[in-house]
Amino acid sequence: MVIDVDKCVGCYNCFLTCRDEYAGNDYPGYSAPQPMSGMNWMKVVEIERGQYPHVKVDYVPVTCSHCDSAACVKLDQTGAIYRRPDGIVMIDPDKAKGNKDLIKLCPYRAIEWNQELQLAQKCTMCAHLLDAGDPEPRCVESCPSGALVFGDLDDPASAVSRLVAMGATEVLHPEYAMGEKVTYRHLPKKFVAGTVILGDVDEVAVGADVTLSGDGKTWTVKTNGFGDFEIEGLPANVTFAVKVVAPGYQAAACETKTSKDVYLGEIVLTK
């Protein structure tokens, strides 16, 4: 699965349809019923960024990554957690009964504890539906914006294979190095934003050139109809030089560091 954060609108359909499919529903051999509350196998993490008046929210759906080298499979000594030939990592609902230690085996904390059934559980990628011939899990089927893309990585013509082949996908925690099969596009990075004002007329500067230099790279954008600019996707903890140029005005320059998302405020150009 590839999840495009830019396309996620935070509608929570993925969460809701997962709950609809599993809460109170038993699929023998695949999964026991989820409790009616307190558990979800598809979380939508809201990330608020920036500061007033330039604030934005990203939504990052998070589920089991079904890793090639899954720590849970390697560390489980009971045989309750296993990886199917198609790559889906499963928890046997019978073998896992009563073993709460299983929830400690995933560094992503994707395994949850069903207190009522005394059972470790997690996303099954809707294996029961895929085995019955459905083309995709419920979360993907219900996504109205196309943020979730599911398919066969062994098929180079599949949409998911094409996205991965573009080299634009990444995992939430590359340091885990587990061969995650749920990857992401456009994960939130740092941004630098601001508003450019023409000081002599006290009007916003439309179409001013803003250049950001640092980390051996340069980004250039133009201010929009409100005099605002934003440069997104920046590395963290890097000092950048900012230069603003508009015809007929003196250039303005400053420095900023992406220890957080930065709103520079109003940058006033003078004649």
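(the above was protein one; protein two follows)
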Amino acid sequence: MPRKWMKPRRRPGLETGGLRELFGHFEETLAALSGRAYQIIDWDRNHQYCSRCGTPTEQRRDERARACPNCARVVYPPISPAIMVLVTRGRELLLARKAEWAEGRYSALAGFVEPGEMLEQTVVRETREEVGVEITNIRYFGSQPWPFPHSLMIAYTAEYAGGEVRPDGVEIHEARWFDIEALPRLPPSISISRRLINGVAAQLLAQYKR
């Protein structure tokens, strides 16, 4: 006689949580693996049917893709590029926060790349749109997959070139300059934004203490 299915018991003191809220608590390798799995599962679940003709799609065996047997349309896991930029002015960093973030938490500026844009153009546009500041000397820092849902964060540094800081009130709730020795609450260490801020702050600190 088959066993009756039973709901797993929750262990005392433990509770479930979403990947995003737990992301900063994983070590780097586990976070990368879980993020990759999350993106693939999300893509597969949302592409069971062809967006062109509505036919059920099939998993291809030779590559990670789903194909339509009716119209031959092939879909791959999407990747949405987004830039991040940390603007410096002497020994100060320009950091911003959104209204929904925890009180006192700030980060670097960020935004999605639009069709037809080069990454450097996005850096200039997002900085101008979000805080009204002009920048120069844009330099690549690094990148990080960010599976919420399927972004690739590409981080840059830039130097202040002019303009008064004016948060747009839509994407950005507050933005201000912070001295490298008086930084506010920052994102978790697993995020590229934290590594960007820490790395640039350390470089500036070494430079201004010579």
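Reviewer note on protein two: The mean pLDDT is 90.
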